[in-house]
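ligand=adenosine-5'-triphosphate
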Amino acid sequence: MQSPITDPSGAEPLIEFDRVDKSFGDLKVLDKLNFRVDPGERVTLIGPSGSGKTTILRLLMTLEKVTPTADPETEGGVIYVEGKPYSHMEKGGKLVPASERWLRQRRSRVGMVFQQFNLFPNMKVLRNVTEAQVHVAGRSKAEAEAKAGELLELVGLSEKADEYPARLSGGQQQRVAIARALAMDPDILLLDEVTSALDPELVADVLAVLRDVAETTSITMLCVTHEMGFARDVSNRVLMFDNGQIVEQGAPEAIFSEPQEARTQDFLRAVLAE
Ligand SMILES: Nc1ncnc2c1ncn2[C@@H]1O[C@H](COP(=O)(O)OP(=O)(O)OP(=O)(O)O)[C@@H](O)[C@H]1O
């Protein structure tokens, strides 16, 4: 079953939210949310705290599920990836909520880096980057180490391969976490506040690595950040969120220099004054 949204350009979106609802108890976080991300785009979500940005990433990581609703037309909506249902699966010609097995299979194309680097503290840097390659992707140790070597070079940490994470700065740990996510060859990289836990002087290194990743790969990135410098430097489209809805979107230069909506103007004024 193909996604119902067709693009006049004929391009197939990589990620598509089709009228997605998400509630936590009585709190409606996403309300019939529509949006799409094309292959190779680097999209940043900005907006006030609690507006639903992280929830979107968590839905894509399948850490959360779409909330079914009684609306007969949308029933809570569907997330598609590569034009195929992602939050749901097809059964008897109908879309039904996906099983755990289906979700596990589908999310293997998605990598995520979190605010807290979450490296395995008892494993050296190299093994942090090879572990999932060997145990999840089934690669040989030699193959995984060769790939880890390339990626550690990309993030500028070849000389730290034999260190434990505790001996690295926060910025270096985050760069290892980026290498670890990329090692699984994801099509989509989700970045959740990846510079927020870092001292200001370390942020630039992580941003430089992400710019390199953007330039040297065709990976699609979806980022949540409170740092407008990040949105400006790394992304090619910014979505301004409020109350689970997209208020405004556009190229970073347009959103930052000429925001059209009052809510975007107020939000940017507040964050830039911090
Ligand atoms: N597991 C949960 N249970 C209950 N409420 C939740 C849960 N996860 C998120 N929420 C609520 O949903 C709303 C949206 O949260 P979300 O983390 O997506 O916002 P956000 O825009 O990423 O915010 P921030 O910028 O502060 O990270 C918030 O009000 C939050 O408290």
